[in-house]
């Protein structure tokens, strides 16, 4: 698998997992009928754990976590090739976020205060670690890339706009949560759906970047 194919995969999998799980819930009559992006009738977690939806969600998101670890490893190598600097911190932050995705998915659909605590903090660190690694990647390209990334400027701007939207949504969610308005739950649900979408779109643009720079990677086995 070429790096660009991996990037496309980590973009597509969560889109299929989240929306597929919701539609399974609708088909089985256990999910709220609405447009989550506009009405906020359900969270992603609630949609994913209703009925048989959890099997699709777990079956896709568990492997996604491992693919994300590989993505951030390849991203750090790609950044090093373009900038001439090591970017191990980006790999570590992204990988930590991906590993907490496993924690979140593992406790999804379970009851109890401890399980809810693990589920909530798992998804928070997954979101935060992923977006932070995305932001640091853009910063590295902008700060150290020079002429090597001149052809990537437009794609970098697109990625930066996605990250900016994610941070704006996070700030709005915090404001809604502390305001005590009666529609706070619906508002936070809407934000969650859009946040996950824009976070995933980053990887689609990363795939275009890797394709445009003809980024390749292979494991070489040397015989003694």
From TrEMBL:
The chain crosses the membrane at residues 7-27, 55-77, 89-109, 121-141, 162-184, 190-210. The keyword Methyltransferase does not apply. It comes from the Bacteria. The keyword Transmembrane helix applies. Keywords: Membrane, Transmembrane, Transmembrane helix. This is DUF998 domain-containing protein. It comes from Aliidiomarina haloalkalitolerans.
């Amino acid at each position: 698998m070429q790096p660009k194919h991996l990037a496309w995969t980590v973009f597509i999998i969560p889109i299929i997992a989240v929306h597929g799980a919701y539609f399974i819930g609708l088909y089985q009559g256990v999910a709220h009928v609405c447009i989550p992006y506009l009405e906020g009738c359900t969270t992603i977690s609630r949609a994913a754990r209703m009925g048989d939806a959890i099997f699709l969600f777990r079956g896709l998101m568990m492997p996604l976590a491992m693919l994300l670890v590989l993505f951030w490893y390849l991203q750090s190598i790609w950044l090093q090739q373009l900038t001439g600097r090591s970017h191990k911190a980006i790999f570590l932050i992204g990988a930590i976020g991906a590993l907490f995705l496993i924690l979140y998915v593992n406790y999804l659909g379970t009851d109890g205060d401890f399980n809810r605590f693990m589920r909530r903090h798992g998804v928070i660190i997954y979101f935060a670690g992923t977006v932070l690694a995305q932001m640091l990647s853009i910063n590295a390209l902008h700060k150290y890339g020079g002429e090597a990334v001149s052809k990537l400027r437009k794609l970098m701007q697109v990625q930066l706009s996605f990250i900016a939207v994610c941070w704006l949504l996070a700030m709005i969610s915090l404001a809604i949560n502390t305001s005590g308005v009666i529609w706070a739950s619906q508002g936070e649900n809407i934000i969650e759906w859009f946040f996950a979408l824009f976070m995933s779109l980053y990887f689609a643009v990363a795939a275009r970047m890797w394709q445009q720079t003809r980024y390749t990677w292979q494991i070489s086995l040397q015989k003694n």
